[in-house]
Design goal:
- It contains 13 helices and 15 strands.
- By secondary structure, the chain is an alpha/beta fold.
- It has a single domain, classed as Peroxisomal Thiolase, Chain A, domain 1 (3-Layer(aba) Sandwich).
- The strands form three sheets. Strands 1, 2, 5, 6, 7, 8, 9, 10, 11, 14 and 15 form an eleven-stranded mixed beta sheet that branches. It has a two-stranded antiparallel sheet with strand order 3-4.
- It is globular, with a radius of gyration of 20 Å.
Length: about 400
Amino acid sequence: MKNRVVITGVGLVTPVGVGVEESWEAICAGKSGIGPITRFDTSEFKTKIAAEVKGFDPLDFMDKKDAKRTQPYIAYAVAAAKMAMEDAALAIDDANGGRVGVSSGCGLGGLFLLETEAQKLDRSGPKRISPFFIPTIIGNMAPGMISIVTGAKGPNLSMATACAAGTHAVGEAFKIVQNGAAEAMIAGGVEAVISPCCIAGFNAMKALSTRNDDPQKASRPFDRDRDGFVVGEGSGMLILETLEGARARGAKIYAEILGYGMSGDAFHMASPPPEAEGAARCMQMALDDAELAPEKIEYINAHGTSTALNDASETSAIKKVFGDHATSLMISSTKSMTGHLLGGAGGIEAVFTALALSTGVIPPTINLENPAEGCDLDYVPNVARKKDISAAMTNSFGFGGTNAVLIMGRPV
């Protein structure tokens, strides 16, 4: 018999706030976290904007020694995990440590350090390379450090499935708890790669918005005048545990995870296949896993990147899966406010989906003024909507044609 799995704690470090309350209030108010890049000189770059985390102090979450040698993506993940643990009132000790694990998604890890250390190697030779270089650029150091600081000794996983990584991490953690391999999991995603190579690389692909003179309106999913996505950073972490265990300790419950789908396009490095077959199949797999009819889903937190290919493709996939019910769905892209956190996107968007279920507030898609051709569904434009819902879906699709979908519901 499979365990029912619920979310009992959440933590957020986002471009719109540090902490769940600050971030969620900003999201519901339609506030953008996008502005000029402050991390490096952008004078030679086509894109000069990003969604940076602001006001984050690693010393609020770790001691001075650790903070000094910890890369931002690790610090964000540890901070979000600690918030989620505190929110869930979940204590880890010798008695249960081996039954609590960590699963985290990350696309590029410590890219900024990789760039600076490579420059140091070229300039000053191999003896100048930091001994912390290798341990702090690898993506799995985020779940590794979460394990170290929390004492979670159960399954420890790192997903590197591009923009689907955070959702895959939560989905795999769901299955681990559902199948009894752990009693609880700390799960989510993180990214912090607002760096010269990242921006230059995406500019070379012509993937980023260049609306530098109006950054807060640069991320505009499903809008006719969108011109690319905006890179974001941060982390979202959730505590997943068995419903039985949560009830036994009197934990509050945000949502229940009902289903998980994952698929591959087998088509192209960066473009979706015709009619979004892979994304549609992934959504259907999640519905099948949840044993839910499409009509039961009321809200979708869309991948919604603000790129021409994704927005039209995702809309097509939703129509294919949901049929006539597609026009009754509420759909929104919170990337319109946070930018695209790449491997971390699925983490914060899983938290937002759980909060939509628990608070009865559907976040908006801001900057949606003129829907693009083929984007003709209800994207909750510009203003949040008060609506109690019973079931929701969150989508993530990554380069290489990797797809992940989660379905959540209010526990009954």
